[in-house]
UniProtKB/TrEMBL annotation:
Localization in the cell: Cell inner membrane
Positions of the Tripartite ATP-independent periplasmic transporters DctQ component domain: 26-177
Keywords: Cell inner membrane, Cell membrane, Membrane, Transmembrane, Transmembrane helix, Transport
Subunit record text: The complex comprises the extracytoplasmic solute receptor protein and the two transmembrane proteins.
UniProt-recorded name of the protein: TRAP transporter small permease protein
Annotated family: Belongs to the TRAP transporter small permease family.
GO MF annotations in UniProt: transmembrane transporter activity
Transmembrane segments: 21-39, 45-66, 87-109, 150-170
């Protein structure tokens, strides 16, 4: 358990520290957009690229936020509880979050398969088929904007981010179990 916690926490910590600088990438894109709109011809790609950057920043930074405990909590009661009672409540509530993330991950996998041209009902087997060579990528979904970028890269980032959040939630669950057993983490 401790090895899993250390591995997940370490990876998400490093990725979160890197993703903190994503806000500067977003600011750069918006600065380019402002300069082009003011002095030159407005560009088509800046608004959508800013949206994609914000999605990556938010979703890949999510596991780090969960790890730091900076997610939104109702501290009205929680702040006064003992560490053991907090662990019991966290253990119970993280199960709902894990269920939600599993449903979200399944939906993200289906949406990504669709963006790669798969229109069937088994998206997970589609990705297995891509690995073994029994499936092929079909017509790639693009954004309906004037720029028309492919959508599979950002959807793949969403799968990765949701999966990492799921791993971080499992790590938090295991930490709560260790706290309830009275062991140091």
């Amino acid at each position: 358990m401790r090895k899993f916690i250390r591995g997940v926490d370490g990876f998400n910590h490093r990725l979160g520290r890197i993703m903190m600088y994503g806000i500067f990438v977003l600011m750069g894109i918006l600065l380019i957009s402002s300069i082009n709109k003011t002095f030159f011809t407005p560009t088509l790609w800046t608004l959508e690229m800013a949206q994609f950057t914000m999605v990556a920043y938010y979703i890949l930074g999510g596991p780090y936020s969960i790890q730091l405990g900076s997610n939104v909590r109702m501290d009205l009661l929680y702040g006064e509880w003992s560490p053991r009672k907090k662990a019991v409540v966290d253990l119970f509530t993280v199960l709902f979050l894990i269920f939600y993330l599993c449903v979200l991950l399944y939906g993200a996998i289906g949406s990504t398969a669709y963006s790669l041209g798969y229109f069937g009902t088994e998206p997970i087997s589609f990705f297995g088929g891509l690995i073994t060579g029994s499936e092929e990528i079909g017509y790639l979904e693009t954004s309906p904007s004037g720029w028309r970028p492919w959508l599979w890269p950002i959807k793949t980032i969403m799968i990765l981010g949701i999966f990492l959040m799921l791993l971080q939630c499992i790590s938090e669950l295991l930490k709560d179990v260790l706290r309830l057993k009275g062991e140091a983490i």
